[in-house]
Amino acid sequence: MSQTPLAKLENLTKDFVQGQTTVQVLKGIDLSVYHGDFTVIMGSSGSGKSTLLHILGCLDRPTTGTYILDGKPVDGLSDRRLSAIRNSYIGFVFQEFNLLPEATVYENIMLPFVYADLDISASRKRVLAAAEDVGLSNRLAHKPAALSGGERQRVAIARALAVRPRLILADEPTGNLDSQNSREILFLFEKLHRSGATIVLVTHDTEVARAARRTLFMRDGMLETP
Amino acid sequence: MKPVNAFLRVRGLLGIAMGSLMKHRLRSLLSVLGIICGVAAVFAILSIGEGAKREVLAGISQLGLDNIIVRSIGSSEKRKADMKSHSAGLALEDVALLSKVPVSVKAVAYLKDIQAAVTGASRELSPQLVACSFNYLQLLGFIPSSGRLFVARDEHRKNMVCVLGATLARHLGSFGRVGTRLKIDEQIYLVVGIIQGNPPQDRKKSGAVVAREINDILFIPFGSHVYLNKQGSFGKGDELDEIIIKFSGRTPIESVLPLVKRTLDLSRHGVEDYQLIVPRQLLRQARKTQRIFNMVLGTIGGISLVVGGIGIMNVLLATVSERTREIGIRRAVGASREDILAQFLAESVLLTTAGGVIGLAVGVFCSWLIARFAGWSVAVTLYGILVPLLTSVAVGICFGLFPALKAAGMDPVQALRSA
Predict the structure, then answer these.
(1) How much is the pLDDT for B83?
(2) Are residues B194 and B87 part of one domain?
(3) Chain A: closest CA distance from residue B36 (Å)
């Protein structure tokens, strides 16, 4: 394990303002994620784990506290810089797959490259390699509607992988899948982990947590080490 | 960003925009219907306006922009009444006086309308007959398409010769050729030349223009008309119907106008039995009228484009809320606000530009229909194409901006959570 963490959160809070009331969702989070880690964050729904993941993925900003990604503070960066970070550092996998329904598998995996500074042929190679990794090389021309839930999630994983991110963030990736498909997806994450990927996975499924190397619990906006 | 990547990004953007528009073909088509109508209307208005303008200007130019035309007014009965008040109408004396006006007069020509019957091949024609000074046709810049024009001798000797307009010559058949003899009111005239007016198309509709339809006229030298029946019986002077004064190129016509007027008034004791026509003023007037016409109709066309733009905005706003999740997904994989803004703007501009192109096609078709069946002249200019096309692009930017800003301003986390 290397000395400097890939992602480091210090005393991080996040408030949501809803009309008159302010809800503090994250109440002082300290977390370090190192290169090659497979971290699972468990917690009941509403505990703030998704919000934490969004902040880790630069999709949301913390109210207070610092977030240092790859040695550099992320706070106060412009939307353009944060978008570039999401594009090249982060790969998201969501519970609802979040694929573009009208686009083919190939186009869906290609989506991040639309916003990347990489030429077409290099992008295409990476897309094909990612599809190969998740075992969907023969499904590239299909639309998501023609795929099973497990296959859809594998497309989403391929999309996250293709840009070769430093950090893969998964939000309940098996939440919408049956146990058979869940096992396949988990197996895929384990494979990624073995090949050196850094993964943070959020779930409330203890079965899933067992795959992880490190498990943290989240309760009422605080992280607890078991 | 490297230029290659910038190019790829623009191409990618258009690709995305194109793709999402093609997915909703019917909706896209319906939403641009307003733009199509607007552009077609603006194009048709501009090309009809341009056609009308050219027609009017050609008519005025034929009068000669360096000329002042003095035309007698009122019926002969009226003039006879005026004679009691010491005016004999326009006469050769006026021509002599006007030639001596101390400004750069190049030439003075004159003419008289004649009533007479012409006997051609088998049928009798009654074309417009004009007895003109020998220099009249040269002064208006006509070149004979065959034969010659009049020379000074024709007028001095009252030669029985004539020059035919091209259309009239055609009607006369074998008589309408140089060298043949025509019978005009029992007198024999030799055809010496044929002239072709330019442009040859019928210009009667532009009623404001006072140009004569040269192609239908039979010209004889002034003086030779006294041999014809009913002519020359007006007593002492031979009344003229028109005097044309040609000034040298750079003469400011407006400034010599009072001088011309005073010269004419001197000999007729203040009786205003003539009318001054200044083609250059007419031209300015016509241009001004045309500008107003274009502005009014252009505004109407513009309003229809704005209405079309509102339609586009409506559809785009609906699209944005429908595609909230897509926006969230794109943001999650690295699209910045600018990327989203650019995407929706590109869609809007693509939509309206496509509408503009279709509208132009419809406009061309409509103009063709109008030209074909209403007989109006229609002229297409680069301006007439660019204005509606650029306007449709501008409408795309203006009315796409608000929906695009709305899309770009969405919170990515909220967007991802939307159903």
Answers:
(1) 54
(2) yes
(3) 28
